[in-house]
């Protein structure tokens, strides 16, 4: 009964800040490159170890990220942090590597409907397009991580069978990929499901490093993160100020806010290496610059550690 | 390893709707008695098994609930649902029982600072005032449940030692109380703590029925609920549309929204006996009547089960 009263979870995690990619791409109003770089530098100063700083999609698809090369080129002095960029195809990969990025992240949807909507290919077709990207990266000495969007539920198709995830992971393994981000793209995952799926996948793919990319669309992101922790997952994506809305539910919450995830992890006794106070300050600044947040509890209520002054006296009532 | 992939949680829970007390009391604008009763009836129609419908505090302390007698009196035909009222003292208990309530809930803070602020007594003094309330209730055949506010953290004092909770629970047991609501009044609990504290308390007080009253001030309420489920807790409070703000953080989220909790539980395969669709409709109506919500994911994004129409065709981009 020694562990009966203790949640068995890791003591240390690594968080990847994704706002410069997943957050900014959801903003319709142009964010100047200088501002983007300024935010990236402020984020780097919080102690976060890893950041997804842009995406090399076609500028017509996401005009907001048309400055991807410049963002990567001018971030090259940030040597204390692992920078990565999302790439949808070989051309994007070449642009990213030319600009100086050392790590690429691949895009892939678990379902055909989402893949068609997002990448204009079925999931199978999209898988076939990954190999040449990896070849280019390998040739040029750049690391590649995989991802699976809508891994825990698709807004068009609903439930995603775990066999579908296993099939994609097998394909990733054949291509030499050893880390994959599992994305709950539209916030459909629940803790029981996350715990069960991760348990199965970690048994079947014991050499794979999984990371969790959780959206808080239905308020379950933190509970899902805890379920993932209970399966030994230590890599999590999050987005400053919760930036990155849900295209299917305008106004709904986006990515779990970095400051909320870090606060919760610290409260739970988990090390992140991040300075929470500084991160909350950055979140405030980002909210001011962008004009809104994407759902952030810290920006509303502040951390638990901020105690209130004890009441001096009370009026008798009741 | 049979359970390695399965979160060990109960298959069925009982939710107590607390908006008519904890939600309404936070509203400064008068809600007419007729409207309150209308909402209570709509809530009862969702299938919720238990409801805290008002509080018999002094009308000067909470003018919003000055119609407590009338609310109780005119709810007496709702015989399919367990109704309870909060009472702060003997006079409140007598008023409540005279009006026809069959169950009382006691108020008690874990810390002196919160108790002084809330009840103008130290926690010890407040405990001494409970016995006469229970005597009155017992004499008149009315059941009494206990509660502990700020059980997982106090906005004035910070950490609350588990020994403090144990001491209060021992006092409750001496008074014949066998069910206690543990309240995270200002959203300071985290899942590791909830799991650990409940584990200890359930070992020490095996005959006590615990229920969880979780505020979502810092976004941890659902994760805390899951941690409580993992310790076998099956009683939860929640508030329609998340009503019931945090007096220490204006604008911050209040109680976990009933529709969010029910949605999450259903997604996790847990039975609540509640019709989620109907509950979301009630939440919409309540938001319209009250003029705002207190943080509700369902009102922003809708349930996971509401799928989107598959995209018919896509334009080539990228």
From TrEMBL, chains A, B:
Question: Which Gene3D superfamilies does its entry note?
Answer: Aldolase class I (3.20.20.70)
The organism encoding this protein is Halalkalibacter krulwichiae
Fetch the Pfam families from UniProt.
HMGL-like
- Domain of life of the organism in this record? Bacteria
Q: Which GO terms describe its molecular function?
A: hydroxymethylglutaryl-CoA lyase activity; metal ion binding
What protein name applies here?
Hydroxymethylglutaryl-CoA lyase YngG
Tell me the InterPro entries matching this sequence. Aldolase_TIM, HMGL, PYR_CT
Residue span, Pyruvate carboxyltransferase domain: 13-280
Q: Which family does it belong to?
A: Belongs to the HMG-CoA lyase family.
Task: State the Gene Ontology BP annotations.
Answer: ketone body biosynthetic process; L-leucine catabolic process
Q: What is this enzyme's EC?
A: 4.1.3.4
* Top class in the EC scheme: lyase
What keywords appear on the UniProt entry? Lyase, Metal-binding
């Amino acid at each position: 009964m020694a562990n009966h009263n203790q949640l068995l979870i890791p003591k240390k995690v690594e968080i990847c800040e994704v706002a410069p990619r997943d957050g900014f791409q959801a903003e319709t109003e142009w964010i100047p490159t200088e501002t983007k770089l300024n935010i990236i530098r402020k984020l780097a100063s919080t102690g976060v170890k890893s950041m997804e700083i842009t995406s090399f999609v076609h500028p017509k698809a996401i005009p907001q990220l048309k400055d991807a090369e410049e963002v990567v080129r001018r971030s090259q002095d940030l040597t204390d942090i692992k920078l990565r960029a999302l790439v949808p195809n070989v051309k994007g990969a070449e642009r990213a590597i030319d600009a100086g990025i050392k790590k690429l992240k691949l895009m892939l949807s678990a379902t055909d409907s989402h893949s068609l909507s997002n990448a204009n290919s079925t999931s199978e077709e999209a898988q076939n397009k990954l190999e040449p990207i990896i070849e280019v990266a390998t040739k040029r000495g750049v690391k590649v991580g995989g991802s699976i969007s809508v891994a825990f539920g698709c807004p068009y198709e609903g439930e995603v069978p775990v066999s579908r995830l296993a099939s994609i992971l097998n394909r990733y393994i054949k291509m030499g990929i050893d880390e994959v981000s599992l994305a709950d793209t539209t916030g459909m995952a629940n803790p029981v499901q996350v715990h069960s799926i991760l348990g199965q996948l970690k048994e079947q793919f014991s050499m794979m490093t999984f990371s969790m990319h959780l959206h808080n669309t239905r308020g379950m992101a933190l509970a899902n993160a805890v379920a993932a922790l209970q399966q030994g997952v230590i890599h999590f994506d999050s987005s400053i100020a919760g930036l990155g809305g849900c295209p299917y539910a305008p106004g709904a919450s986006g990515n779990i806010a970095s400051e909320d995830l870090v606060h919760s992890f610290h409260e739970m006794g988990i090390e992140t290496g991040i300075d929470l106070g500084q991160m909350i300050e950055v979140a405030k600044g980002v909210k001011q610059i962008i004009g809104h947040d994407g759902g952030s509890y810290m920006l509303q209520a502040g951390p638990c550690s901020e105690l209130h002054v004890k009441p001096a006296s009370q009026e008798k009532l009741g």
